[in-house]
Amino acid sequence: MVADEAPADEVRGVVQGAAPVPLSVLDLVTVGAGRTATDALRTSVDLVRLAEARGFHRYWVAEHHSMPGVASSSPAVILAHLAAHSERIRLGSGGVMLPNHAPLVIAEQFGTLEAMAPGRIDLGLGRAPGTDGATAAALRRTDRLNEGADDFPEQLAELIRFLDDDFPDGHPYGRIHAVPGPVQGTSPGGVQSPHRPPVWLLGSSGFSARLAGLLGLPFAFAHHFSAQNTVPALDLYRESFKPSRVLDAPYALIGVSVLATDEESEARRQVLATGLNMVRLRTGRPGLFPTPEEAEAHEFSPMEREFVSSWNANIVHGSVDEVRSGLDELQKRTGADELMLTSHAHRGELRLRSYELIADAYGLPTI
Questions:
Q1: Nearest to residue 11, comparing CAs of 24, 26, 2?
Q2: Are 155 and 98 in contact (CB under 8 A)?
Q3: Peptide bond just before 95 cis, omega within 30 deg
Q4: What pLDDT digit, counting tens, does each position of 156-206 carry?
Q5: How far is CA 135 from CA 95, 222, 263, in A?
């Protein structure tokens, strides 16, 4: 007996309204100055409800560590919470940084999530640490960080074996099973669904793009912090692509920083605060997401101003008309199959309003 059969295609999204491609959400659970992680997580609940109600296709949470302004260190925990506050929208990791974890642990976590929200869990995987080197060493209990990244294809293969419960005979892990998982369906009286979360590869360079193509997996590119590499990486993915049982043709989404506001000036102020936040992060001084007033009072050095200008040039922001035009142009230029939008602002209500304005601009339905 098979329970909860999965939909035929869980990768490709459905276009809603007048959007050029499916639209999705990436959440870093931003914590603003003067606010708490509890506040940020409450915003995430409000946001997943909004995204589901307005027809956004999926909602992913990113793994980051040792950053006071980012409360998404435990994607699986947050996704379980969001699953309890939603019914239809796909939920997933964007992503889990696989070298930080044992593959069996990830298989167990996402098997559990799949049991909680059958047929709507994605497992997005990256090979970067999602933090600085010292924190990565603490996570992995080793200072040989390159070793983890170099072993990523092997870690990925092991994880997929655990997810599918199909280690070959004689393999050292052949008698080990990720639970919840397929083994429950093959046990006496088992009714476990054979379905498991689809795997995505994430990247900001060519390595994961090529690997995703060779394996025939969907690919997510971090345009929001590696914009100069977007088109080359997507080209490499498409050129490397080999059809698989997962996909018969390439499917790529890109993460896009975006902020639409009712007043254009407010978008500029919030984006300046984003710039200050990134300056602090890149200089080893990460903190809570600053207020616009704090950013306006900050005396940027010439080098900092150059960095902020370059960084903010890749944030699609301003009035809703500006944002829609910018997203349309970006999708056309990259050929992305899906746009995953991430909005950063000091106040959670501004992030919520940004997604609401974008949904209205494209005529996304209220579902």
A1: 24
A2: yes
A3: yes
A4: 999 999 999 999 999 999 999 999 998 887 777 777 776 789 999 999 989
A5: 17, 21, 39
